[in-house]
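Q: Joint fold for the lines below.
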Amino acid sequence: MIGLLRLELRRNITPFLLPTLAILLWLSPYGRSLTGTAVWTRRGEALQETLLGLGPAMAGAAAWTASRENRARTRELLATTARGGWSRTLPGWAATALWGLALLAAATGVLYGLTARAATWGGPPWWPVAATCAALLAFCSAGHAIGALLPGRFVAPLTAIGTFLLVVVAGALKTADASLGLVSPVGQVTDPYRALYYRAGHDLPVVELIFAAGVIALPLGLLALRGGAGGPLVRPAGIVLTAAGTAVAGTGLWLAGTGHIVANQGIATIPRLESRGDGRPIAYTPACDRTPIQVCVHPAVKARLGAAVAALHPVTDRLAGLPGVPTTIDQRMVDGPSIRGSVLLLPAPFEAYDTRGRIRGRVAREMRADTAAGLLLGAWDGTGSARQAAVLAVLVAAGDPPDGADLPIRDTPGPAVLAAARRLAALPQPAWHQWFAAHLSALRADRLTLKDLP
Amino acid sequence: MNVETSGLTRSFRRRKAVAGVDLALGAGVYGLLGPNGAGKTSLLRVLGTVIPPSSGELRLLGRDPAGHAERREIRRRLGYLPQDLGYYAGFTVVEFVEYIALLKEMPRQRVPRAVAAAVEDVGLGDRARSKLRTLSGGMLRRVGIAQAIVNEPELLLLDEPTAGLDPEQRVQFRGLMRRMGERATVIVSTHLVEDVGAACDRVGLMSDGRLVFTGTPDELSARGAGTGVGDAPLERGYSAVLAEIRT
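A: Joint structure:
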């Protein structure tokens, strides 16, 4: 078997697919994640998303190898050899699987290696790696069975295309919160950034792994049940593999059916599993800068602190030193802004963490708008003309467009609000400072109207 | 006896491709002649355990191929060259022969030497590392012969082995067959009567699934004396026997 495996490894089609697979990887979330901040949870999820391209490609490669006897018309010759059909083709499956695993190991090595160099918090998540490996083997098994049962010239591309469509549908089911879709290794239901703040557990990768283990065994078992598969031991082995594969895959589906997504924590829980992704907060020491209004972020995104401070500087510079304005901005996992003592808790801008370089454009403007509203008013429902004008004035003074489009309110403010904001923003800095110092409490209590603004 | 058949038949639906063949063959080279559709290839496929017989008795290398364990043992000692040799274009000559050797469950430590010897025997030593897709038809036929003899089979079944070989290669191949026939049973199905005359100890002539003649090449030649049609004595014997059957 070892000799056959070595031969199959040498002549496997997968190495010829490497350039295509490299392009697929680069175009997948894997490639995109490399340009984002090095956050372990984010990278672990991106690794699983590699299956969107890698899975169908490996299924196609396995189908190509399994259909080889029919394509090359070697079946008659090989039928006269001592090995039965099942054990004869198994090394081909194993070679494809090993090449796939090697490719996955290389992709994991690159992704996790780069992450290890740049990450500022946490450690590599290994459960997604295990689930991805199992899923890859399952793709190889399914492709092998299809290639062996329906041999033909076009079975490989058709298998790859069919598998891709299946993966897309399964991923869509998973994303749509359909419980059974949780067995799909592809599809985003959990929030990798939320997982920085709450314990996410391993329920999801574990159930994916269980289902994949079943799918690995089931097709191989079915092939062993065919006529001419081999000797008297092959058929019992096929029965065992088929039964075990069905039971394990069924268990995975059943477990997934009992699972649900905890929306406000972005985690998936499978109550029957003991890994308990219970959503308990994770303790951490934030990374903070030393500006007058200190900005703090999760240590995992420490690399983005400088960019966040730079994006907020026009606003924090304007409001620093005002009595009653928080002296610390803590970007964390909260639904909206709130002031606790001298600390403003702000929703972490994950979109800004996901980019490189300076934070610009809409993302930066929205960050400034949230920060201005939070620093001035704390929790705010977006109503109140004077309060809208005051927040907008800070943004206008910071250089943002004076149209209020980025204000955290439902509708664009009316002309009167815009005019009042422009007037307030045009005040000289001492007068501006003096007015806010005198009226901030009243503004927060919504006791001012537009007429009260200078 | 390495091959023993009695009343061997093989039917494909209503047509009997092999219709009651009796054979008892020991070591030596046995030529199988006959017109197209006579049943030569079907008989070789039955003897090669590719397809089971429809009826009759069959023992190969002293074993009954109906049982899995015995069939497996037979296949370990069997060499088979099908009429239409499929091959993996991306494999090299050595890899393809090695692949078949491993499938025949040869001990791994014996494989490299046996593969090298088989490749040398068919005169492909200088192309051992060439991909099969780069070889000519004659060279591919020689690869087919190499894979058939790699395990030093006790029963060697060759279906038109010399098709596509040039005269020099055919002469070399006849020598190889004679050497193999010294210790193994070699059954060669062919249309080339000169191969039979040069290399075979015995010859069988098939027509409509039946063996209509069994004897030595000289005996077949004698059957055509004065009556047969053809340029060579064997051809005349061949055509005389067939004409006799048809009338």
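Q: Anything notable?
A: The mean pLDDT of chain B is 91. Chain B is about 40% helix and 25% strand.
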